[in-house]
Amino acid sequence: MKTIAVIFDFDDTLIPDSTTAFLASRGINTQKFWQDDVRELVGNGYEPSLAYLNKIIDLSGDGLPLGNLTNADLKQFGRQLDSGFYPGLNAMFKDLRAIVRTLSADITVEYYIVSGGLQALIEGSPFVNKNFTAVYGCQFAEHPETGRIKNIKRCVTFTEKTRCLFEINKGIRPEQALQNQYMVNTDIPLKHRRIPFKNMIYVGDGLTDIPCFSLVQRMGGLSFGVFNPQEQASAKRALIEFLHTDRVVSMHAPKYRKNDELGSLLRAAVSSIAARAMLERHEAESD
Ligand SMILES: [Mg+2]
Predict the structure, then answer these.
(1) What is the pTM of this model?
(2) Bridge partners of residue 112, in order along the sequence
(3) Percentage of residues in the chain with pLDDT exceeding 90?
Protein backbone atom coordinates (compact mmCIF):
# COMPACT_ATOMS: atom_id res chain seq x y z
CA MET A 1 0.00 0.00 0.00
CA LYS A 2 1.38 3.41 -0.95
CA THR A 3 0.37 6.52 0.97
CA ILE A 4 0.27 10.14 -0.10
CA ALA A 5 0.45 12.67 2.76
CA VAL A 6 -1.14 16.10 2.39
CA ILE A 7 0.27 18.12 5.27
CA PHE A 8 -1.16 21.46 6.36
CA ASP A 9 -0.10 24.20 8.67
CA PHE A 10 -3.21 25.18 10.65
CA ASP A 11 -3.57 28.88 11.48
CA ASP A 12 -4.08 31.14 8.45
CA THR A 13 -3.74 28.10 6.19
CA LEU A 14 -6.93 26.20 7.06
CA ILE A 15 -8.60 28.79 9.29
CA PRO A 16 -7.98 32.33 10.63
CA ASP A 17 -5.61 32.31 13.63
CA SER A 18 -7.21 30.10 16.28
CA THR A 19 -5.09 31.24 19.22
CA THR A 20 -6.09 34.84 18.53
CA ALA A 21 -9.76 33.81 18.34
CA PHE A 22 -9.47 32.02 21.68
CA LEU A 23 -7.70 34.92 23.41
CA ALA A 24 -10.26 37.39 22.03
CA SER A 25 -13.08 35.19 23.35
CA ARG A 26 -11.54 35.61 26.82
CA GLY A 27 -11.41 39.39 26.52
CA ILE A 28 -7.67 39.65 25.85
CA ASN A 29 -6.51 42.58 23.75
CA THR A 30 -4.94 40.44 21.04
CA GLN A 31 -3.27 43.35 19.28
CA LYS A 32 -1.38 44.14 22.49
CA PHE A 33 -0.74 40.44 23.15
CA TRP A 34 1.03 39.81 19.82
CA GLN A 35 2.38 43.23 18.89
CA ASP A 36 3.59 44.37 22.33
CA ASP A 37 3.91 41.52 24.80
CA VAL A 38 5.01 38.62 22.62
CA ARG A 39 7.11 40.86 20.39
CA GLU A 40 8.92 42.23 23.43
CA LEU A 41 9.90 38.72 24.52
CA VAL A 42 11.02 37.83 21.01
CA GLY A 43 13.06 41.04 21.02
CA ASN A 44 14.69 39.77 24.20
CA GLY A 45 15.76 36.59 22.46
CA TYR A 46 12.80 34.28 23.15
CA GLU A 47 12.01 31.68 20.54
CA PRO A 48 8.70 33.00 19.09
CA SER A 49 6.56 29.94 19.96
CA LEU A 50 7.99 29.81 23.47
CA ALA A 51 7.28 33.53 23.81
CA TYR A 52 3.55 33.23 23.14
CA LEU A 53 3.18 30.02 25.16
CA ASN A 54 4.89 31.64 28.15
CA LYS A 55 2.65 34.71 27.82
CA ILE A 56 -0.45 32.49 27.93
CA ILE A 57 0.86 30.84 31.09
CA ASP A 58 1.60 34.31 32.55
CA LEU A 59 -2.02 35.34 31.92
CA SER A 60 -3.42 32.19 33.58
CA GLY A 61 -4.21 31.69 37.25
CA ASP A 62 -6.43 33.01 40.04
CA GLY A 63 -7.54 36.56 39.34
CA LEU A 64 -5.64 36.74 36.05
CA PRO A 65 -7.27 37.42 32.66
CA LEU A 66 -7.35 33.78 31.49
CA GLY A 67 -8.35 32.42 34.92
CA ASN A 68 -7.67 28.79 35.76
CA LEU A 69 -7.19 27.76 32.16
CA THR A 70 -7.15 24.01 31.42
CA ASN A 71 -6.50 21.95 28.29
CA ALA A 72 -10.16 20.95 28.49
CA ASP A 73 -11.11 24.66 28.16
CA LEU A 74 -8.96 24.90 25.04
CA LYS A 75 -10.51 21.77 23.61
CA GLN A 76 -13.97 23.09 24.39
CA PHE A 77 -13.25 26.31 22.49
CA GLY A 78 -11.89 24.22 19.61
CA ARG A 79 -15.37 22.78 19.11
CA GLN A 80 -16.48 26.19 17.84
CA LEU A 81 -13.81 26.31 15.13
CA ASP A 82 -15.69 24.20 12.61
CA SER A 83 -17.73 27.07 11.23
CA GLY A 84 -14.59 29.09 10.49
CA PHE A 85 -12.58 26.90 8.11
CA TYR A 86 -11.71 28.38 4.70
CA PRO A 87 -14.09 27.39 1.92
CA GLY A 88 -14.08 24.03 0.22
CA LEU A 89 -12.00 21.89 2.59
CA ASN A 90 -14.61 19.25 3.31
CA ALA A 91 -15.36 18.64 -0.37
CA MET A 92 -11.66 18.70 -1.27
CA PHE A 93 -10.79 16.01 1.27
CA LYS A 94 -13.50 13.81 -0.23
CA ASP A 95 -12.37 14.59 -3.78
CA LEU A 96 -8.72 13.75 -3.05
CA ARG A 97 -9.72 10.40 -1.57
CA ALA A 98 -11.91 9.71 -4.59
CA ILE A 99 -9.18 10.69 -7.09
CA VAL A 100 -6.76 8.24 -5.49
CA ARG A 101 -9.35 5.49 -5.13
CA THR A 102 -10.30 5.74 -8.81
CA LEU A 103 -6.67 5.35 -9.87
CA SER A 104 -5.67 2.43 -7.67
CA ALA A 105 -6.87 0.37 -4.74
CA ASP A 106 -3.26 0.26 -3.51
CA ILE A 107 -2.86 3.99 -2.89
CA THR A 108 -4.36 6.01 -0.03
CA VAL A 109 -4.22 9.65 0.97
CA GLU A 110 -3.76 10.86 4.55
CA TYR A 111 -4.09 14.37 5.99
CA TYR A 112 -1.86 15.85 8.67
CA ILE A 113 -1.65 19.12 10.60
CA VAL A 114 1.77 20.43 11.66
CA SER A 115 1.17 23.61 13.62
CA GLY A 116 2.89 26.02 15.95
CA GLY A 117 -0.58 26.63 17.43
CA LEU A 118 -2.22 24.96 20.41
CA GLN A 119 -2.80 21.25 19.89
CA ALA A 120 -5.63 21.00 22.45
CA LEU A 121 -7.50 23.78 20.66
CA ILE A 122 -7.01 22.21 17.22
CA GLU A 123 -8.06 18.77 18.46
CA GLY A 124 -11.27 20.20 19.85
CA SER A 125 -12.55 20.56 16.30
CA PRO A 126 -14.80 17.68 15.20
CA PHE A 127 -13.81 18.45 11.58
CA VAL A 128 -10.13 17.93 12.45
CA ASN A 129 -10.86 14.70 14.32
CA LYS A 130 -12.82 13.32 11.44
CA ASN A 131 -10.33 14.08 8.68
CA PHE A 132 -6.77 14.11 9.98
CA THR A 133 -4.52 11.14 10.70
CA ALA A 134 -2.45 13.13 13.21
CA VAL A 135 -2.07 16.63 14.62
CA TYR A 136 1.27 18.06 15.77
CA GLY A 137 1.10 21.23 17.84
CA CYS A 138 2.23 22.96 21.03
CA GLN A 139 1.11 21.34 24.29
CA PHE A 140 0.75 22.51 27.87
CA ALA A 141 1.25 20.27 30.90
CA GLU A 142 -1.39 20.60 33.62
CA HIS A 143 -1.19 20.80 37.37
CA PRO A 144 -1.97 17.21 38.50
CA GLU A 145 -4.65 18.26 40.99
CA THR A 146 -6.29 21.37 39.57
CA GLY A 147 -5.84 20.59 35.86
CA ARG A 148 -4.64 24.14 35.38
CA ILE A 149 -2.04 24.66 32.64
CA LYS A 150 1.30 25.02 34.28
CA ASN A 151 4.25 24.29 31.98
CA ILE A 152 5.08 24.05 28.31
CA LYS A 153 5.19 20.39 27.45
CA ARG A 154 5.84 20.50 23.74
CA CYS A 155 6.75 23.44 21.54
CA VAL A 156 6.53 23.21 17.76
CA THR A 157 9.00 25.79 16.50
CA PHE A 158 9.73 26.37 12.83
CA THR A 159 12.52 23.79 12.73
CA GLU A 160 10.62 21.37 14.99
CA LYS A 161 8.05 21.28 12.18
CA THR A 162 10.57 19.46 9.98
CA ARG A 163 11.04 16.86 12.71
CA CYS A 164 7.29 16.17 12.44
CA LEU A 165 7.72 15.65 8.69
CA PHE A 166 10.49 13.13 9.34
CA GLU A 167 8.23 11.29 11.78
CA ILE A 168 5.53 11.12 9.11
CA ASN A 169 8.16 10.05 6.58
CA LYS A 170 9.41 7.24 8.82
CA GLY A 171 5.97 6.11 9.92
CA ILE A 172 6.46 7.05 13.58
CA ARG A 173 3.13 7.75 15.27
CA PRO A 174 2.91 10.85 17.52
CA GLU A 175 2.17 8.69 20.57
CA GLN A 176 5.29 6.61 19.88
CA ALA A 177 7.35 9.78 19.52
CA LEU A 178 6.04 11.09 22.85
CA GLN A 179 7.17 7.85 24.51
CA ASN A 180 10.58 8.05 22.89
CA GLN A 181 11.67 11.54 21.82
CA TYR A 182 14.69 10.17 19.96
CA MET A 183 12.81 7.68 17.82
CA VAL A 184 12.90 10.07 14.86
CA ASN A 185 16.65 9.43 14.68
CA THR A 186 16.11 5.74 13.93
CA ASP A 187 18.02 4.88 10.77
CA ILE A 188 15.47 3.61 8.26
CA PRO A 189 16.68 3.06 4.67
CA LEU A 190 14.92 5.41 2.23
CA LYS A 191 13.07 2.63 0.40
CA HIS A 192 11.56 1.33 3.65
CA ARG A 193 10.14 4.67 4.83
CA ARG A 194 6.38 4.68 5.13
CA ILE A 195 5.72 7.91 3.20
CA PRO A 196 8.56 9.10 0.93
CA PHE A 197 8.95 12.88 0.73
CA LYS A 198 8.12 12.72 -2.99
CA ASN A 199 4.63 11.57 -1.90
CA MET A 200 4.19 14.61 0.33
CA ILE A 201 2.40 17.86 -0.33
CA TYR A 202 2.95 20.68 2.17
CA VAL A 203 0.63 23.69 2.46
CA GLY A 204 1.51 26.58 4.76
CA ASP A 205 1.36 30.33 5.09
CA GLY A 206 3.98 31.67 7.42
CA LEU A 207 7.57 32.16 8.38
CA THR A 208 7.37 28.99 10.49
CA ASP A 209 6.64 27.01 7.33
CA ILE A 210 9.80 27.93 5.44
CA PRO A 211 11.93 24.97 6.60
CA CYS A 212 9.10 22.58 5.63
CA PHE A 213 8.66 24.24 2.23
CA SER A 214 12.38 23.83 1.58
CA LEU A 215 12.63 20.27 2.88
CA VAL A 216 9.63 18.95 0.96
CA GLN A 217 10.65 20.70 -2.27
CA ARG A 218 14.24 19.53 -2.04
CA MET A 219 13.21 15.93 -1.46
CA GLY A 220 10.94 15.81 -4.50
CA GLY A 221 7.56 16.64 -2.94
CA LEU A 222 5.39 19.67 -3.61
CA SER A 223 4.87 22.82 -1.54
CA PHE A 224 2.11 25.38 -1.82
CA GLY A 225 2.11 28.75 -0.10
CA VAL A 226 -1.01 30.44 1.15
CA PHE A 227 -1.52 34.14 1.66
CA ASN A 228 -4.52 36.31 2.26
CA PRO A 229 -4.69 38.91 -0.53
CA GLN A 230 -6.95 41.07 1.64
CA GLU A 231 -4.21 41.53 4.20
CA GLN A 232 -1.60 43.91 2.94
CA ALA A 233 1.05 42.84 5.44
CA SER A 234 0.55 39.17 4.76
CA ALA A 235 0.68 39.57 0.97
CA LYS A 236 3.79 41.68 1.14
CA ARG A 237 5.56 39.31 3.50
CA ALA A 238 4.61 36.41 1.27
CA LEU A 239 6.19 38.05 -1.73
CA ILE A 240 9.36 39.08 -0.02
CA GLU A 241 9.98 35.94 1.98
CA PHE A 242 8.78 33.23 -0.34
CA LEU A 243 8.54 34.12 -3.99
CA HIS A 244 11.90 35.85 -4.27
CA THR A 245 13.70 32.84 -2.91
CA ASP A 246 11.89 30.26 -5.05
CA ARG A 247 11.09 28.31 -1.97
CA VAL A 248 7.53 27.49 -2.88
CA VAL A 249 5.90 26.43 -6.09
CA SER A 250 3.32 29.18 -5.92
CA MET A 251 1.28 31.40 -3.60
CA HIS A 252 -2.51 31.27 -3.44
CA ALA A 253 -5.49 32.53 -1.53
CA PRO A 254 -6.69 29.92 1.02
CA LYS A 255 -9.66 28.64 -0.99
CA TYR A 256 -10.03 24.94 -1.57
CA ARG A 257 -13.08 24.54 -3.85
CA LYS A 258 -12.73 22.70 -7.13
CA ASN A 259 -12.66 25.90 -9.17
CA ASP A 260 -10.38 27.85 -6.85
CA GLU A 261 -6.74 28.11 -7.85
CA LEU A 262 -5.37 26.29 -4.80
CA GLY A 263 -8.23 23.80 -4.68
CA SER A 264 -7.68 22.77 -8.29
CA LEU A 265 -3.88 22.63 -7.98
CA LEU A 266 -4.05 20.36 -4.93
CA ARG A 267 -6.40 18.02 -6.78
CA ALA A 268 -3.98 17.95 -9.75
CA ALA A 269 -0.98 17.44 -7.44
CA VAL A 270 -2.50 14.42 -5.70
CA SER A 271 -3.58 13.00 -9.02
CA SER A 272 -0.09 13.29 -10.49
CA ILE A 273 1.64 11.82 -7.42
CA ALA A 274 -0.79 8.89 -7.48
CA ALA A 275 -0.21 8.34 -11.22
CA ARG A 276 3.57 8.37 -10.71
CA ALA A 277 3.26 5.89 -7.81
CA MET A 278 1.30 3.56 -10.09
CA LEU A 279 3.94 3.81 -12.82
CA GLU A 280 6.71 3.07 -10.34
CA ARG A 281 4.87 -0.02 -9.16
CA HIS A 282 4.34 -1.13 -12.74
CA GLU A 283 8.05 -0.70 -13.51
CA ALA A 284 9.06 -2.55 -10.35
CA GLU A 285 6.79 -5.44 -11.22
CA SER A 286 8.05 -5.73 -14.80
CA ASP A 287 11.74 -5.64 -13.75
MG1 LIG B 1 0.14 29.56 9.82
Answers:
(1) 0.94
(2) 7, 134
(3) 73
